[in-house]
Amino acid sequence: MSATLPPPPPPVAGHVPTLDVSGTPRTPFTRLIGVEWRKMLDTRAGVWLLGITAGLLALIAGIVLLIVALADVSPPSANDWLNILTIPVSMLVPVMAITIVTQEWSQRTAMVTFALESSRLRVVLAKLVAVMALGAATILLALVLGLIGNIIGAGLAGTDANWNVTASTFGWAMATQVLYLLMGFGFGLLLLSSPAALALYYVYVWILEGGVIIPGIMYVLWIAFDWGQAILPWFSMRIAMLPFQIGDSDAASLENDLGANLDTGALGLAHVFTSVLIWVGLPLVLGTIRLLRAEVK
Amino acid sequence: MITVDRLTVSYGGFTAVDDVSFVAQPGRVTGFLGPNGAGKSTTMRVMVGLTPATHGHVTIGGLRYADIPNPGRHVGTLLDASAQHAGRTGREILTLGAQTMGLPKTRVDEMLALVGLTDSEAKRRLRNYSLGMKQRLGIAHALLGDPSVLILDEPANGLDPAGIRWMRGLLKGYADRGGTVLLSSHLLHEVEQIADEMILIGHGRIVAQGDRATLLASNGTGAATTLVTSLDNDALAAALGAAGHAVAAAGPGLRVTATAAQVGQAALDARVVLTDLRDGGQNLEDLFLELTSSTQRDVLPNGASA
């Protein structure tokens, strides 16, 4: 780990190592992942966060079904379920991605963690793998709930279940969740402070970008102004990815509102690439560099 | 063996550790002494790679810390007993350490028993621990991997007198079995009874090092001083003055520039009954305060000249 430590000193003349490390293998990476996984679940905060995420998913699915059962509305399609149930996932899982990094600073456990594993990069990667696994498990739970909800909803309404999720839509939805998780992780590394990283994450995701229900500032400006349409797709991951995510009929009405075409070609992909670079790539790279160089006190 | 070689750590214009060199030998307890902010903790953080050195380097058993695989199995560290997650139980904290080092769960129970934390205490969360309990847990964590080198920053802080005696015995036994022990303290009396070797640091610089006798000998004031109290101090003072010794009042007795034997002889000749007679020369604490006085935060009454 040359980035964290000064260059190796020149060998001292006549100095023979007295510490016999030949019988000690390096700590396996899988063991580091296991430790980081355990750290997410061994505090009340971690257990509560996961409990709330699972509870919120079940609650939202229940409310949707209740509305379908009581009101005379058509049941949500598979695509609707996907949109609804990924909201709690994107709200809460990135919190874990942030705190798995920042709590080492706020609780000062980084002193112990990095004393037991000198390679900080290995620790960072172990944390990333652990939190990605947690994210995958949560998304799987959301998908199972959506699947069951779609079947029950159709049953309640007495219609056939609508399985209108294409592979492309599904892929973009999963990519969005992974990117949000990586973004939280990057913000955590960059700021090394839970409140600051959480604030930045929520301001970006909920105030600047907005969700399915309440549009964010950038989304509104994008709809309203020509300059917004020229600039904001480069800066907003949501706006950049939107053309790839929405169905044809929604795309047609959105293009009508905008008075412009949604680009799913090279320009559209360039929008996605640039916005992801700004919000995910840069925080991850700069944050990792910061962590590798930081003095641990 | 810990070798600190011309270590300097600077923060902008401030030099926290200034050209520090020393060796902590196996089989010995090395005390690292200095007032608050003298650079002890910074030096110890450099040893385990948490703080980068500006110049110089530290090796442990001839290796850079980063080159030691699974370092917890070789070097036990306790840098700050409070630097653990407040929401984890004591047992969980040790379990995480044991899991990282690849140790069996039974090792956690062994260490808890060794440091005297009961089963119910181990189930409590760290925020409910007293400082003394945190220190015991921290020492247990440092010893988990059965290391051959121990680096302990202020381990006696918060321990009660019985706890300090317990730790003294523990570290002494550890060094007697061939281990290297480096422990820091800002309190001399915590260290002087256990340390075979002492490093005195003030203002980021080493001001003295050696064992107790060496330190006193190299910094002695030369002329012997004796403190004496008798049933008739005036008569004794007159006798001592007549014998050519400088005499000054000191508390209930006298401070005499003479050896205890000379004072005793004068008292015998003058037929004065002595009630107290002891060496009034510089003790280790005076030396410690004197050597580090330029970095003391508080002005000591007569401290520098004691």
How would you portray this structure in words?
The complex is a heterodimer of chains A (297) and B (306). With 297 residues, chain A is mainly α. Chain A has a domain at 27-166. In chain A, 74% of the residues lie in helices and 0% in strands. By secondary structure, chain B is of the alpha/beta class. Chain B has 2 domains: 2-218, Rossmann fold, CATH 3.40.50; 226-279, no CATH class. Chain B contains 11 helices and 13 strands. Chain B has a 6-stranded mixed β-sheet with strand order 5-6-7-3-8-9, sandwiched between helices. In chain B, strands 11-12-10-13 form a 4-stranded antiparallel β-sheet, covered by helices on one side. In chain B, α2 (90-101) crosses α3 and α3 packs across α5 (131-143). Residues 302-306 of chain B have low confidence and may be disordered. At the A-B interface, α1 and α4 of A face β4 and α2 of B.
Helix content of chain B: 25-40%
Name the quaternary structure: heterodimer
Order of helices and strands of chain A: HHHHHHHHHHHH
Q: Uncertain regions of chain A: pLDDT < 50 for 5+ in a row? A: 1-5, 7-14
Category by helix and strand content of chain B = alpha/beta
Mean pLDDT of chain B: 89
- From N to C, what is the helix and strand string of chain B? EEEHEEHHHHEHEHEEHEHEEHEH
Summed up, the helix count of chain B is 11
